Amino acid sequence: MNFSALLLVALSSIATTTAFLPLPQAHPNVLRISTSSSPSDVLVALEMASRQATKWEKKQKWLEGRGLSAEATDSDGESSNAVNIIIAGAPASGKGTQCEIIKEEYGIVHLSTGDMLRAAVAAGTDVGVKAKEYMDGGKLVPDEVIIGIIRDRLEEEDCKTQGWLLDGFPRTAAQAAALAEAGCKADCFLFLDVPDEILVERVVGRRTDPETGKIYHMTFSPPDAEDEALIARLEHRSDDTEEKVVVRLEQFHTNVAAVKGSYEDIMVSIDGNRSPTDVSKDISESISAALAKRA
Ligand code: AMP
Hints:
14% strand, alpha/beta, signal, Adenylate kinase active site lid domain-containing protein, 5-stranded parallel β-sheet, 2 domains, two-stranded antiparallel sheet, Rossmann fold, Adenylat/UMP-CMP_kin, single chain, transferase, 12 helices, nucleotide-binding
């Protein structure tokens, strides 16, 4: 895109988002874009017309409505009121589905270590190469591989200002200790409790739409039978097999007590063997209760 086209997009974005609702300087989506195609290499400050911006504003109103300060950032851009959540549970306990709802509701940054590692494997990075053999076998990747990635990611500005939702991390006592050492404190630790026999059934029928990230189950939550394009693009994870899930569950049971033990004071155990709507209702109440405590 040349400089004039970029500037046009920038100006129309500003016009659509800020005409009636000026965003504060600390807004997480004030971006600076370097326009190398411009002769003077101008920096254009953009107030982004994005769904994230809307979510951020929604969260400010939500916090205000609960008597919490709506000013989320200080002069360094450090967040004081960002909502930080950890969601845990066995494979296919419903974390992914609930994360979609939570991130929509609170506008926080969703970090799924499984997704991050799959992306690293697909891109063939050093981390991906190291992680692949463990993931293929259904085993946890070594702590030293995953801890650095998450710590670096949590240092980024969006996590500090918008808050974070950790999905699939920490999965071991060492990971929980590393998170605490890095000063990353969660407001609540949600644990989705589902019996093993249900998990196996869920894993085997699970399919993901790579375009939207939406998760389906071929029996319990099937895609629209007439949507042939969707059905054709659905992906079945290579570790979502009966054989691999046995190993994944073993790894989960070996570590879960230690992880839960690290968050006893903020842990809420939720019956995950119900409809996503019912589970989501409990999650919402638990997050509200956790935030009310800190008010
Ligand atoms: P998930 O998508 O959360 O089921 O994760 C898929 C796979 O990624 C797991 O079976 C592990 O091999 C690896 N993985 C994801 N998160 C972690 C973690 N926190 N620690 C170690 N391995 C992980």
